[in-house]
Specification:
- The protein is built from five helices and nine strands.
- Helix 2 packs parallel to helix 4 and helix 3 packs antiparallel against helix 4.
- The longest helix is centred in the middle third of the chain and has 17 residues.
- The chain is globular, with a radius of gyration of 19 Å.
- The two termini are 19 Å apart.
């Protein structure tokens, strides 16, 4: 086997989005998914682990942005096994955009499946983590290879480290397995910023921490809409390459 000329093998957008509760993750993602679904003339499929999308499936005239109901198909479960089975059964000729909200619950389910075999006071042994991660990481890989645009949403957690003998907060990340938010091509952090002069007004901020296309990398957008993902469509190729089997 020899080196060959590189070619674009990314036919679909894969994005992780995380932030604290109320930062606009679900609503913003549905806007982006709606835009992509109109482009590929397919439907949006959403795994909803906490019924967080219920009001977005309903038209609410008092909603200032997008008062019409979002049009998507939903699957409700927090079971990693059930979600994995449902996702692998998707007809990608029908569904061209997939959202998993929240992937934090998928990670918690992976851990809980092992903790259920232990005594309550036991710590998970180091050698057990590979088996805990295996079905979870297999689902992540399937999503990255799937012939559809994929959004992985998760809650935010603090990251701590010991510096000069002191335990300090050094940043934030998605509350899930450590590598998950950086598996997709794009990682976006959301936050809600309240207007100091008018506390009834909130601006929703999207900060792109990672973007392999280079279009959004390091940029910040206020109240992001569908134009964000539209700007990425010219970066995509005609086909989507499947990753190498890790085994």
């Amino acid at each position: 086997m020899s080196f060959t000329k590189a070619n674009p093998g990314q036919g679909y957008l894969k994005m992780s989005i995380y932030g604290p509760p109320g930062s606009g993750k679900t609503f913003t993602t549905l806007q982006w998914a709606e835009t992509l679904a109109k482009h590929n003339k397919k439907r949006v499929a959403m795994v909803d682990t906490e019924r967080g999308s219920d009001f977005y499936a309903k038209a609410i005239k008092q909603r200032k942005v997008h008062p019409d109901a979002f049009d998507f198909d939903a699957y409700y479960s927090r079971s990693l096994l059930d979600v994995d089975k449902a996702i692998r059964g998707i007809d990608f000729d029908k569904h061209g955009v997939l959202i998993v909200d929240s992937f934090t619950h998928m990670w918690e389910a992976a851990i809980a499946s092992y903790e259920g075999k232990m005594n309550s006071n036991d710590a998970i042994p180091m050698q057990a983590w590979s088996s805990i991660k295996r079905p979870y990481k297999a689902l992540v890989q399937f999503l990255m290879d799937a012939p559809a645009h994929v959004f992985i949403l998760g809650r935010q957690k603090n990251v701590f480290d010991t510096t000069d003998g002191e335990f300090r907060r050094i940043g934030v990340t998605m509350a899930c397995e450590a590598n998950t938010p950086y598996e997709p091509q794009i990682c976006c952090r959301m936050e809600a910023v309240q207007n100091e002069k008018d506390t009834t007004q909130t601006t929703y901020i999207a900060l792109f921490e990672k973007d392999r296309t280079g279009v959004l990398s390091g940029r910040t957008f206020a109240n992001p809409n569908g134009s964000i993902v539209e700007s990425l469509l010219p970066c995509l190729g005609d086909k989507h390459a499947v990753s190498e089997d890790p085994d």
